[in-house]
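hey m, so remember when u said the tokens were messed up on ur end? i reran from scratch. heres the input so u can diff it against urs
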Amino acid sequence: MTQEHLQGYFDYNATTPISEGVALSMQPSISLFANPSSPNRYSANSRSAISEARSNLADLLMTRPERIFFTSGGSEANNWAIKGVLFKHLRRPGHIITTSIEHASVLDTVRYCVEHLGFSVTYLQPDAAGHISPKEFESALTVDTQLVTIMYANNETGAIQPIEQICKIAAEKQVPVHVDAVQFVGKRLIDVEQLGVNYLSLSAHKFYGPKGVGCLYIKDRDAIEPLIHGGGQEFSMRSGTENVVAMTGIAVAAEEAKRELVSWDRHCFRLKNQMIALLETAPIALVFNGTTDYESALSNTLNISIDGIRGEALALRMEMLHGFIISVGSACSNNKTQQLSHVLTAMGLTEEQVLGAIRISFGCFTDAKQVSKFVDALVIEVQQLLRISGCEVS
């Protein structure tokens, strides 16, 4: 993909385009037809491709290859981490700590474990900036806490959670921590060993890789149950014939992210500052939802609420009339009947503010010219929507 092909795309948190290097690497891997688990000479090439992918992901996370276990993506990895740990405690279900702003694949899995398996749960609430308090987290820990599951960076606001502090507090109580890092990996540097996390989820399609492949970092595989039983693949931890083509893609995506991540991050932060400056001087009334500074939020994400309009109507007009693609929430939550963002609601926004919110996310293929055009189009459409609704336009 090139900048020309991606003019107007501002929904990178939903999914990123596949990089040219990833696409090129996957084409010849289609010929690797042999089952990696077979002992014949054709299978050796398939096993080699898997080994390379595992090694590249380990390099990206700064860990050892034997701690990388492939999944079909972030949702499976989140399900596995939560259920796999809690299945060890089915005879004595205990306590879970999570937050009210997690991805659906965490919230729904935790809810299942509470409603059907007898566990209890504490949902930590964010502050107005979208952050969880380490002090409140420490207060929520009990002698019965068996798992902590908290995302690294929020998919709607980009808010980065104090995971290192949380891991340190949890380690003192010997409570395992799972981190959903789907939005974080490929955007910021991460060292899972230094971080002290027990489990970490990622998905290739969030950092220019293919859909349908991700992984779960597992510090100690004896501490977690397999989610999928069968043929014994993935060191007998996740059975099923491996998707060699997708693994070839994630291998290159991880290699590119390791090499280019700092450059991508700087590029996105420049664009973010440019967009903030343009929005702050634009003739429309808006607020930024959550923090926007570098240390506290992802460099590629902005969430704004605009007075007097509906985010869904604005998103539709931006795409139909100007070719700009944005989001009114996470891609997964948009498939459900729930209309109000649970993330923005938990942060204390009013219903009107939530309904008027849009998420803007960009990446390495976005440029400054696109950002300027985007803000110009946004002003035009906000003013037009206000006229349609009978509101005065300044």
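this time it looks ok to me. The chain has a mean pLDDT of 95. if urs says something different then somethings off w ur setup not the seq
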